[in-house]
Amino acid sequence: MLSATAYTAWVLEVVLSTGLDPVQAYISELAAEDQPLGGLFRATDLAAGLCVLAAAVTALAGGQAGPRGARRGWAVVGWSALALFGAATAADSRLPLSCAPTSDEMCAARETAGLVPATHTAHAVTSSLAMLGALTGLAALTVAARRYGWWPPVRRIGPWLLGAELLATGWSLAAIAAFEAGRGTWALGAGQRLQVLLVALWLAVLALSLALPAGVPGDESTWSDASPPAHRGPRSAERPPGREPA
Asked: What is each CA distance from 10 to 105, 221, 240, in whole angstroms?
């Protein structure tokens, strides 16, 4: 939950003057070295990454990949992916952009000519790894929740968040390609902010799920919405104790 909160620190741009257009600018530009509030957003990204990394490593190392110590493949994959997301997000905060290419034409020209620091390329790599980890974690833990009957909020809301996240990711990738090809930004900033917001919502849903009572390991029907009642036979066959048929 701390990670989800820190990962949405960018909403402060609604009340703080950043000088960037939230519809057009990369969300990473808020943390660029030449931005007045860059230090704040780098710190919140670092906190978000370290918090989710600590949670994922604790879940894996402590054998808590599922409720009450249950450990199954999809859950292990999901927590491992969230560990990648956390580590890459923390690294991302230590490899900021040097300038804001969507709002600074000189910065964009230097970036195109390859005259920006190597941190720009490194930042692109860590950002990609972070989103890959987030998507994989969301998908794998949602599958685990539905297949093993765990975590009701994840099981119910996870598929919707996954679908929305895939659409937002597609939008962001298309917008980035258009910007790099000199065809405008295609509301790049809005797409990325939606992408990040959905990840934060997912982390909050996961945190809520972990706070709820868990099912019994191996009992996949414990949290199943569609679990039928135990078969007891026809009502006419039920008789009070001690009364045998004549």
From this structure: 23, 40, 66
